[in-house]
């Protein structure tokens, strides 16, 4: 059986945010076994899984990505929506727009320290829409 839910996360400030609980709160009860596929419907934000225990990891991710793709690069052409827009698209493409997670015993089968990240790359973003598909 397959179920699909579309929901919106509230606006988050620019940066990396652990949103595991926010995502789970939007889902129907999970099956005993299966897969959860999450897709973010935006081109300037991304979703991934990483360290969820130490908040310094979130800060370090933001610092590294800002070094890799800084704002105001002189050769960027897509600048109409502000200096953070094209770098946001590039960063989102580097991380990706979907993840697939195993479901075991009715729970996400994440590692001990893992959590779902919303990677917000815009300075003034609105809420973000996600599509959650559960395969059982």
UniProtKB/TrEMBL annotation:
Q: Which residues cross the membrane?
A: none
Q: Which InterPro entries match?
A: UPF0047_YjbQ-like (IPR001602), YjbQ-like_sf (IPR035917)
Instruction: List, alphabetically, the Pfam families matched.
Output: YjbQ (PF01894)
Q: Which family does it belong to?
A: Belongs to the UPF0047 family.
Name the chain's protein. YjbQ family protein
Top-level division of the source organism's lineage: Bacteria
Among PANTHER family, the record links this protein to:
UNCHARACTERIZED PROTEIN YJBQ-RELATED, UPF0047 PROTEIN C4A8.02C
């Amino acid at each position: 059986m397959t179920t699909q839910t579309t929901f919106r996360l509230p606006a988050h400030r620019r940066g990396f945010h652990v949103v595991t609980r926010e995502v789970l709160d939007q889902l129907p009860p999970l099956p005993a076994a299966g897969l959860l596929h999450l897709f973010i419907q935006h081109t300037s934000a991304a979703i991934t899984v990483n360290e969820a225990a130490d908040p310094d990891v979130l800060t370090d991710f933001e610092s590294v990505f800002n070094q890799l793709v800084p704002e105001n690069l002189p050769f960027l052409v897509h600048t109409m929506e502000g200096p953070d827009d094209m770098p946001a698209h590039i960063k989102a493409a580097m991380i990706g727009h979907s993840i697939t997670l195993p479901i075991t015993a009715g729970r996400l089968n994440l590692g001990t320290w893992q959590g779902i990240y919303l990677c917000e790359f815009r300075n003034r973003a609105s809420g973000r829409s996600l599509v959650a598909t559960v395969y059982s």
